Amino acid sequence: MNLDPSSALVLFSGGQDSTTCLAWALSRYRRVETIGFAYGQRHAVEMEVREPVRRGLGALSADWAARLGPDRVVPLDVLGEVSVSALTADLPLGTRPDGLPSTFVPGRNLVFLTFAAIVANQRRLKHVVAGVCETDFSGYPDCRDDTVKALQVALNLGLEARLALQTPLMWIDKAETWALARTLGGDGLVDLIVERTHTCYLGDRSRRHDWGVGCGACDACRLRAAGWQRYRAGT
Fold first, then answer.
1. Please, are residues 49 and 14 in contact by the beta-carbon 8 Å criterion?
2. Confidence of residue 137 (pLDDT cuts 50, 70, 90)
3. Which residues neighbour 213 within 8 Å (Cβ) at sequence distance 6 or greater?
4. Model confidence, pTM
5. How far apart are CA 160 and CA 116, in angstroms?
6. DSSP string for 70-119
7. Which residues touch 59 (CB under 8 Å, ≥6 apart)?
8. Phi, psi at residue 87, to the nearest 5°?
9. Which residue, 80, 115, 129, 136, could crosslink 10 as a Cys pair with Cβ 3.0–4.6 Å?
10. Are 54 and 71 within 8 A, CB to CB?
11. In whole angstroms, how far apart are CA 172 and each of 47, 125, 137, 156?
C-alpha cells in the first residue's frame, strides 16, 4: 500500500508534549490526523481537554485548521486491567523496587504505537508522530529511542509497510519543548499549552500555576514546572 508522504497521524493525549508534537506535524504535513487512547488512566481528564486543544490549535492558524483532519479515540481498558501501575490503579506515586517509577504502565507505548501504526497504514498516513523523549523524562523504557527504532522495524515488517515513527522531542529537554512550541506557534501556542492542556498524573485541575494546571507534586508536574522555569529564565 502506498503511503502519502505529506500526511501524519499524531498520538495526541491532550498534554504538553503531544500538543507540541501536533503543532510540529501541522507545520510540516499537508494532512494531519490524531489518535488518543482511553486505557483506564486515573488522569482521564486528559481525554476531556483533547478536543478543546485541537480547536485551539486550529484557531491559531488558518493553515493548521485546514490541515487538521479527524480524531479517533481507541478504548484500551484492557491495558489498565493487565498492568499494575499507579496510573491505572489507586496506588501511591513513587519508585518501584526495580527503580522504575510506579507510574510506568508496562508496554503502554508499545501498544499505542502498534495501534497507531495499524490506523495510519489503513489511512495511508506515512508518518506516526509521538511525544516520547529520553532526555528529560520519568525513566520509562518504552520512551527510549532504541525502543522506537526497534518497533519501527517490527511494525514495517509485520505490516509490509514503510511507516516512519517520528519523535520530535526525543533529544530535547522540557525547557526546549516549551521553546519549540513558541517557535512553532508563538506566544499563542505557549498560552494554549499553559491554559488548556493537561499533564498531571493525579488529574488535578483545581490548582493553577505559571506553567499550567496540576497538583505540582507528581513527576509529570515537576518536569513540566522545572522546564518552564528554565525556559522563562532563557527568554
1. yes
2. low
3. 198, 200, 204, 205, 206, 207
4. 0.94
5. 15
6. EEEEEE-HHHHHH---TTTSS---SB-TTSSBTT--TTHHHHHHHHHHHH
7. 65
8. -85, -20
9. 129
10. yes
11. 25, 25, 10, 26
* Beta-strand pair 212-213/208-209: antiparallel
How do residues 22-44 score in pLDDT, each as one tens digit?
A: 999 999 999 999 999 998 887 78
Instruction: Please return the burial class of 73, using the count of CB atoms within 10 Å of its CB with bins 0-12, 13-18 and 19+.
Output: middle
Query: Residue holding cell 505557549?
Result: 190
Q: Where is average pLDDT lowest: 38-47, 83-92, 178-187?
A: 83-92
Q: At which residue does the C-alpha cell 489511512 appear?
A: 123
Mean pLDDT for the chain overall: 93
Comparing CA positions, the residue from 91, 191, 186, 179 lying closest to residue 136 is 179
Name the helix (H) or strand (E) containing 126.
Answer: strand 125-129
Return the C-alpha cell found at 79.
491495558
